[in-house]
Amino acid sequence: MRGYSCQTAARSCVIAGMLVLSFSLRLHAESYVYISVGGEKRIAIYKMNEQDGSLSHYANLEVPGGVGAMDVDPARKFLFTNMGASKQLGSFAIDQATGKLTPLSTTDTGQSAAYVKVDHTGKYLLTAYYGAGQVAVHKIGPDGKLGAEPLQIVKTAPKAHAIVPDPSNRFVFVPHTGPNLIYQFAFNSRVGKLTPNSVPTVKTPVEDEPRHIAFHPKLDFAYVDNEKGNSVTAFRFDASRGTLTATQTVSSVPDDFTETSHCADIEVTPSGRFVYTSNRGHDSIAGYAINPENGSITSIGQTPTEERPRSFNIDPSGHFLYAAGQSSGKLAAYRLDGATGSLSRFATYEVGPGPGWVQVVKMPEKQAKFTPNYDESKVPDYDLPDPLKTADGKRVTDARTWFETRRPEILQLFEEHVYGRSPSRPPEMSFEVTSIDKNAMQGKATRKEITVHFTGDKDGPSMTILLYVPNKTKGPAPTFLGLNFYGNHSVQDDPKITISKAWMRPSKDDGVVENRATEKSRGTNSGRWSVDRVISNGYGIATIYCGDLDPDFHDGFQNGVHPLYYKKGQTTPEDNEWGTIGAWAWGLSRALDYFETDEDVDHRRVAVMGHSRLGKTALWAGAQDQRFALVISNNSGCGGAALSRRRFGETVRRINTAFPHWFCGNFKKYNDNEDALPVDQHLLVTLIAPRPVYIASAERDRWADPRGEFLTAKYAEPVYRLLGAEGLGATEMPGINQPVMGTIGYHIRSGRHDVTDYDWEQYVKFADRHLRGNK
């Protein structure tokens, strides 16, 4: 048994062990270029050489309705297009191994869409209709299929030419060439609804006719190409209000050019250093340098291109630009100088008559098959950080030094390297009891539903607490609190519990259809909650759907509570800021804020509990918020109660690859590099000391590393003893179904990854011991 007091026997052993376990290697991801060939009603697919930018024709897909504008979802699983001749929208599955397309669905629109754009969550397709003067929102199913009917149609004005969300996904902008207006909308990505902004439109210079819009990746600026004005306008973007203010307009053609020309497309480089527009008539790509301080633009000249360049696209690396000549039927390929912005043509490709759209797609990086280690003999030698040694090497020998020096050091390390820093309680937060039943569970309990509004806006982000308190208990009840996976209504088969309307992971067994709960989902997770046992023993029990705080999929942190706390110009958390687990833990603390106002709940005796990923969350919540009186981790594994350095079962790389949104960005530095972590999970448990903590494993849940979970409990014990608590009370891992209960509790039960009545029986006993003093 290895611990922080042991030295590694030989570095070669560690390296050998790491080689045994490092199965999850990053593989090269291919890039493809999709071109809509309007004259032949097909999509041409080219494979891109990422080293030199050269293209090789790879495949064609015939599209009977013709092809116009295109876009792909954030996960690059699906491609969407307007099929103008048939007045339809189409969706296609992208084979991420070959780049080939397979038709999925067509949706009749009655109008030809000029522009299509997938929102940043990947749940909605936004469309603009030039002829009809309108925009629409279409639902995208988890299978990539489009809904038969649009969720919303909004009349705007003639010649709606594009529709683009801002980087935060909270606002949507629609340039109109006819009336010289850009329409500004607020966008609710929870339900897919556009609402006119407080300033519904912004004018552009007379007769310039704004056509397309592109946002800067870092600055609060957007850039619009003006079709008739042959120019680009820079707009300052108010990220809090969702409004644009024009600051500068610069011509896209030379001063001595007098012939007819019209701008078509606009793109900002991934670096944010340059912006380009295409000139139809002058037949060039005009470039501009962007001032990184104030967003202003300076012309860097025009580069000749193919005749009538309607669409062009910059590859995700920012090294290459591809421009289609609608009249020439050719594609011009350029190298883009990242320092000067200059374009140099290196190839020209015959693509076919009338190319109308160019889309470069880099496929997600593939991973080699992961094979977990389940052999104890292959666990590498490791050293654990000593919880009782400060950063400057001094021994911690008293409680004061622990609480004033060492504990803050450890907490800061977990914030910086694992879970990320979380914000404090929102000052404008409010609580609303939306339902109450004093005769729930045949009179045993009072059931409440409480909406927690995080902002002053009652229609803004919120979470709903489902709370049961026993009717026979005198005074406020000690209470168990935990998040759930499939909505509060899944915890009890009670028709009066409100069914969650939030996004959920697909699960037919749990009554979730197209990522939404149905009546069949009522009570489907009741076996994991033992509500009757808890109430009968005089405890309250409360739960919140984790998706109220942040739905459990990676959309760039746009669909949960994270955007509430973005600084000006920020669109994603910094590498040391909260991920999804941080957001979930933050929500548990907000529930505790509510309990402090409810006379039926003893807020000084609240036990926070979680299973699996929500067990990781419970540990992090208890570590940060010392108001939680007791913490329970059920089968939480890697990133929870299991030691990362053991590399047994799930590993740091594996969890960061499968769930890149759970932890902070810095945690990815420790993929296949666990020994470099300045913390390990035994230190997480020490942050809870001297409060009681219970860690539970399951015999058949080797993925979560039961032994690693036990060792975490064991190696946290010295801090508990320093603070006068009992500790674990076991030197060896106990047998199956033989719990040990000191101030640290632990059991490994028979069975698999789950929460069972046996688990709850132990948790109630543990709570009796520590929250009620029943030794």
Walk me through the structure:
This protein has 775 residues and is of the alpha+beta class. Helix content is 14%, strand content 34%. It has nine helices and 40 strands. A ten-stranded mixed β-sheet has the order 29-30-31-35-32-36-37-38-40-39, with helices on both faces. The protein has a four-stranded antiparallel β-sheet with strand order 3-2-1-28, with no helix packed on it. A hairpin with a 4-residue loop joins β13 (171-176) and β14 (181-188). α4 crosses α5 (613-624). The longest helix is centred in the middle third of the chain and has 21 residues, at 399-419. Mean pLDDT is 93; it is low at 5-26.
Keywords, please?
single chain; 775 residues; 10-stranded mixed β-sheet; 4-stranded antiparallel β-sheet; 9 helices
- Total helices: the number is 9
Largest sheet: 10 strands, mixed
Q: What is the SS-derived class?
A: alpha+beta
Q: What would you report as the Rg, rounded to the nearest angstrom?
A: 29 Å
Count every beta strand, where a strand is a DSSP E run of 2 or more residues.
40
- What is the percentage of strand-forming residues? 25-35%
Give helix % range: 10-25%
Q: Runs with pLDDT <50, length 5+? A: 5-26
Mean pLDDT: 93
Rough outline: elongated
Strand order within the widest beta sheet = 29-30-31-35-32-36-37-38-40-39
Distance between the termini: 31 Å
